[in-house]
Automatic annotation (TrEMBL):
Domain Porin positions: 19-345
Topology with respect to the bilayer: Multi-pass membrane protein
Quaternary context: Homotrimer.
The protein, known as: Porin
Alphabetized GO MF terms: porin activity
Keywords: Cell outer membrane, Ion transport, Membrane, Porin, Signal, Transmembrane, Transmembrane beta strand, Transport
Localization of this protein: Cell outer membrane
Source domain of life: Bacteria
Organism of this sequence: Caballeronia ptereochthonis
Highest classification ranks of the organism: Bacteria, Pseudomonadati, Pseudomonadota, Betaproteobacteria, Burkholderiales
An annotated GO BP: monoatomic ion transport
Predominant subcellular localization, coarse grouping: membrane
Length: 365
């Protein structure tokens, strides 16, 4: 009897261990097929800012070399080379703990999309980083710095940021497009392509949209890009991704931008070059702005020296020019943390010089 009882007691344990093993294997399989990642960066700098035609301010601010943000992304293996993917990414101002790049900024302004990744390319929908922004930051030495990159100044910081720069609107549509559908092709020996379309999402706003196409070549020492962006309004110029951004050139109803970029890495010296042509359709008469950027980086003492010069001239009645140059040094303390120092000089015709200088630290997680 005792022997039977002991045998009878063991059987439930055997069943439990088997069930536990099956559950563990199932959980491990599910974990292998899906993933979620939390990531981001904190960038703070201390220094001085003086915009063209304005007075100087001493600041402790965020986003000196790149804008602070946090995000999470994930994927689920659907089989056959297909994956479901998503990303949610939000900017924030570390200097005061507030969300967004500015007051009233969209919460997930950096990216907020879901889609399908396959052997035939990636298709996503939501708020997506624009093709123009990607090409702009990859082909200038200061990358995505809204504080020290001359090319960022000339591409995105026009009259809406500097009212004295009356004839250069800057690129309309922000660095991310809401209400968008985007397709990116597979990589063919370093060459890939991307197309985007952004809907107006407003009743009666027939024709209001944004579209873009991009080619990227990233292979070895040589990299190149070509990108086109078009933004069309119904009647009144007002960025429908950011309705609060109404400080635009009077009568502007559409804008098209073409940009070319090239880099070559000699190891001891990396060269950068960009050319951009912006055409503005305005009720009082169309005009364009031509922009060029040249720069380099040089590795020194485990860090790198960065230098860049950008020049813009418009064909409008004011015939304004803008000349901006910057120099800086970035030094990595570890794989995730770096410190930097930089100086930028910004000159708009008819206005006093602007200049920005400071030191900062950036930590990635």
């Amino acid at each position: 009897m005792k022997s039977r009882q002991r045998t009878g007691c063991r059987r439930p344990k055997t069943v439990s261990l088997t069930a536990l093993a099956i559950a563990t294997l199932s959980a491990a399989s599910a974990h292998a097929q899906s993933s979620i990642q939390l990531y981001g960066q904190v960038d703070e700098w201390i220094g001085s800012q003086k915009f063209p035609g304005n007075q100087r301010a001493w600041v402790v601010s965020g986003g000196g070399m790149s804008t602070s943000y946090w995000g999470m992304k994930g994927s689920e293996d659907l089989g056959g080379g297909y994956k479901a993917i998503f990303a949610l990414e939000a900017f924030y101002r570390a200097q005061n703990g507030q969300i967004g790049r500015f007051q009233g900024d969209t919460f997930f302004a950096r990216n907020a999309y879901t889609g399908i990744q396959s052997p035939y390319g990636t298709l996503i929908a939501g708020r997506v980083t624009s093709n123009l922004f990607v090409s702009t930051i990859l082909f200038n030495p200061f990358v995505d710095s809204y504080v020290f990159s001359p090319m960022i100044y000339h591409t995105y910081l026009g009259t809406s940021t500097f009212p004295a720069y009356r004839t250069d609107q800057g690129a309309i549509g922000d660095s991310g497009w809401s209400n968008s559908v985007a397709y990116t092709s597979p990589n063919f020996s370093g060459l890939s392509g991307s197309v985007m379309y952004s809907f107006g999402n407003e009743a009666g706003a027939a024709g209001q949209h944004k579209d873009s196409a991009q080619l990227l070549y990233l292979n070895g020492a040589l990299s190149a890009t070509a990108v086109y962006q078009y933004v069309n309004y119904r009647n009144v110029a007002n960025d429908f991704s950011n309705p609060g951004s109404a400080n635009v050139v009077a009568g502007l109803h559409s804008q098209s931008i073409g940009q070319l970029g090239l880099t070559y890495d000699f190891k001891v010296l990396k060269l950068y070059g960009q050319y951009m042509y912006t055409h503005n359709s305005v009720a009082s008469g169309n005009y364009h702005v031509s922009t060029g950027q040249a720069g380099f980086t040089v590795p020194i003492a485990d860090g790198k020296v960065m230098a860049s010069y950008a020049y813009s001239r418009d064909s409008g009645g004011f015939d304004q020019t803008r000349k901006t140059w910057a120099i800086g040094y970035d030094y990595p303390l570890s794989k995730r943390t770096d410190v930097y120092a930089a100086y930028l000089d910004d000159k708009i015709s008819g206005e006093s010089h602007g200049e920005t200088f400071g030191i900062g630290i950036r930590a990635k997680f």
